[in-house]
Amino acid sequence: MPRVGILNFLEPTFADTCFPIYRSSYLITDSEVVYYENLLSGEMTLTSFCPRLSVNGALSKIEETFEFAVSDANHDSTVYITDGAFRFKVPNFW
Question: Nearest 5 degrees, angle CA 13-CA 14-CA 15?
Answer without folding.
Answer: 95
